[in-house]
Amino acid sequence: MKRYTVAEVRERLADVLNEAEQGTPVCIERRGVRYVLRRDTAPAPKRRKAPLIDVLDPAVDDGQWSWTWKPGGLQFRRRRTRS
After folding, report:
1. pLDDT (0 to 100) of residue 1
2. Which residues pair with 28 in a beta bridge?
3. According to the model, what pLDDT value does residue 81 have?
4. Where does the pLDDT of residue 55 fall: very low under 50, low under 70, confident under 90, or very high at 90 and above?
5. Is residue 27 included in any domain, yes or no?
6. Are 15 and 2 in contact (CB under 8 A)?
7. CA distance 4 to 20
8. Beta-carbon contacts of residue 81 (< 8 Å; ≥ 6 apart)
9. Residue 51, CB-side half-sphere exposure with 13 Å CA sphere
10. Neighbouring C-beta atoms of residue 23, cutoff 10 Å
11. For the segment 9-53, what is each residue's pLDDT rounded down to a tens digit?
């Protein structure tokens, strides 16, 4: 276990975190109180990203509509059907 003072940790925080990540417990001492820093073994929870586009109309989801950029902003247009 490596020992550091708070001042040393401030200077080399990335190095201290790398050591803890590799599995070496790190002891940080501040005013006589010791703190132990070690990597958590539990996997981080996966966050589900919110969709950027919510499909409200089934026709849009089916591909019957498209959109184009116009000077006024985004505009929907009906797709031409091929015969």
Report:
1. 85
2. 4, 35
3. 66
4. low
5. yes
6. no
7. 12
8. none
9. 4
10. 9
11. 999 999 999 999 898 999 999 999 999 998 888 887 888 888 777
Three-point CA angle 60, 63, 67, nearest 5°: 65
Q: How many domains does one find in the chain?
A: 1
- The tokens describing 42, both together, are 């539990």
Whether residue 8 is contained in a domain is answered as: yes
Residue 20 belongs to domain spanning: 2-37
Q: Find residue 69's DSSP bridge partners.
A: 74
Residue 79 belongs to a domain: no
CATH number, domain of 16, equals 3.40.1620.10
**φ/ψ (deg, to 5) at 6:** -65, -40
Instruction: Tell me which amino acid residue 7 is.
Output: A
- pLDDT for residue 83 is more than 60: no
pLDDT at 67: 78
Give the CA distances from residue 57 to residues 1, 43, 50, 66, in Å, rounded to whole numbers and listed in that order.
Answer: 60, 38, 18, 12
Q: Is residue 20 part of a domain?
A: yes
